[in-house]
Specification:
Largest sheet: 7 strands, mixed
Helix content: 25-40%
CATH topology of the largest domain: Aspartate Aminotransferase, domain 2
Strand content: 5-15%
Structural class: alpha/beta
Number of domains: 2
CATH architecture of the largest domain: 3-Layer(aba) Sandwich
Radius of gyration: 23 Å
Bound molecules: pyridoxal-5'-phosphate
Oligomer: single chain
Number of helices: 11
């Protein structure tokens, strides 16, 4: 079976672009992005895409040094997150004036709701994790939760004592925060589209005198919040935010294969992680995990930046948010759906509609969300069903991602198909 892209409400990733964009992608697919001397014009476009993204997030882009590296594009947010965290691991290890014990291990703090790429980073790059478990009914990490971990005495944390092998004397009065390379925050979580308390965490780090950076995973939120009137503070305007990633192939509106990582300023990136290459005709300075890559995704992003501009993006994003709110209202107003399901996502931030069974049905559900998803699949819709992460794992949700081409007509059809599916399941259940 092969799904239809326009009925795929499971994915954040772009499934439609204009014919002219597809033509440009076709023309640039044979150009290897790393051949910067050979394709100097493409490289100039690449640099502009990074600088435009950095500007969007209020980075300190140096105007007097065009060669300064302010970030890089990647194949997606996973690569971008891992590169960013590698930078923070390096900076932690080499932080000036800090005397480290040979037993110290690097730690990273992030919520149980982060995308798998954070846990992957810990495993692949030998970094320990301090998980922040979500509070019941709260789907983002709070500053208080992070503070508690940072200020905890190592001697009072059996897990850190065991992992690092400290004696009580060695642990002394040291705090867990001394081992932390970065706090990972999410702006637009994969599960519910919620947002971690980035501004509060920033303030807590400043007030506590912690030399710990924040990495913001704005995979989906990075191309949404800059275009809405949201007053949420989450980007480089907060002094502790040193790096941000975004998935261009989500709300950047380009086909799969592009993410971007940007730094607050070039000083965040250690020189040692930039590799000089001279075997591609001309000198190249490379900072990436991958190497060869088609130029087409970068060209597609440039096309969209020029084609839409800020006002065009604003129009598309506000449209997505409006349809997500309309969908939420239609679900709550439906005489069939409203008695059984409720929307728990906050569509004021991200156009994600996460639906759960109402609490009164949890003990004896007339149907499960898995049943509902299966029924929907028969009408062509794909919507994932999963449990929320610890400590909200009791809650199972179905997620509907509202993307640019999910029209009001499609939203209406989805509500009708949901209603039909519920009716069928109820008739089976009570037969
Ligand atoms: C919050 C978040 N971070 C990271 C990722 C990974 O992004 P990519 O698929 O671009 O590697 C995703 C993917 O959905 C995501 O939602």
């Amino acid at each position: 079976m092969e799904g239809l892209p326009h009925l795929n409400v499971a994915s954040f990733v772009t499934t439609w672009m204009e014919t002219e964009a597809e033509q440009l992608a076709y023309e640039s697919i044979s150009k290897n992005l790393v051949n910067v001397a050979e394709y100097a014009h493409t490289e100039s476009i690449h640099r502009q895409v990074i600088a435009m993204t950095a500007n969007l997030f209020h980075a300190e882009v140096p105007v007097d040094d065009p060669a300064a590296i302010i970030g890089t594009t990647t194949v997606g947010s996973s690569e971008a997150v891992m590169l960013a965290l590698l930078v923070h691991k390096w900076n932690w290890k080499h932080r000036a004036g800090v005397q480290r014990s040979a037993k110290d291990r690097p730690y990273l703090i992030f919520g149980t709701h982060t995308h798998a790429c954070f846990a992957k980073f810990g495993r692949y790059f030998d970094v320990e994790v301090k998980w922040v478990h979500l509070l019941p009914g709260i789907y983002g990490v709070t500053a208080e939760q992070v503070r508690e971990i940072l200020e905890r005495r190592i001697a009072d944390d059996p897990d850190v004592m065991r992992t690092c092998g400290y004696t009580l004397e060695e642990a002394g009065d040291r705090r867990v925060g001394e081992l932390v390379i970065a706090v990972g925050c999410v702006v637009g979580t994969t599960y519910t589209g919620d947002i971690d308390e980035v501004a509060g965490i920033n303030q807590m780090l400043v007030e506590g005198g912690w030399e710990i950076p924040i990495h913001v995973d704005a995979a989906s939120g990075g191309f949404i919040l800059p275009f809405t009137s949201s007053t949420i503070e989450w980007d480089f305007r907060l002094p502790k935010v040193e790096s941000i990633n975004v998935s261009n192939h989500k709300y950047g509106l380009v086909y799969p294969g592009l993410g971007t990582l940007v730094f607050r300023n070039p000083a965040v990136l250690p020189e040692e992680l930039v590799v000089d290459i001279d075997y591609l005709s001309g000198e190249t300075r490379n900072f990436s995990l991958n190497f060869s890559r088609a130029s087409s995704s970068v060209i597609l992003q440039y096309f969209n930046f020029l084609r839409l501009g800020k006002s065009g993006y604003r129009q598309v994003i506000l449209g997505c948010l409006e349809r997500a709110r309309d969908l939420t209202a239609a679900i709550h107003a439906s005489p069939v759906l409203a008695g059984y399901v409720e929307v728990i996502s906050k569509t004021e931030y991200l156009p994600i509609v996460a639906v759960k069974l109402k609490d009164e049905w949890l003990a004896q559900p007339p149907f499960t969300l898995d049943d509902l998803a299966k029924r929907l699949e028969e009408t062509g819709w794909f919507a994932p069903v999963y449990h929320l992460p610890p400590d909200n794992e009791r809650v199972q949700v179905m997620r509907i991602v509202v993307r640019a081409h999910f029209t009001s007509t499609l939203a209406g059809a989805l509500v009708r198909d949901l209603e039909t599916a519920v009716r069928q399941l109820l008739s089976q259940s009570y037969a």
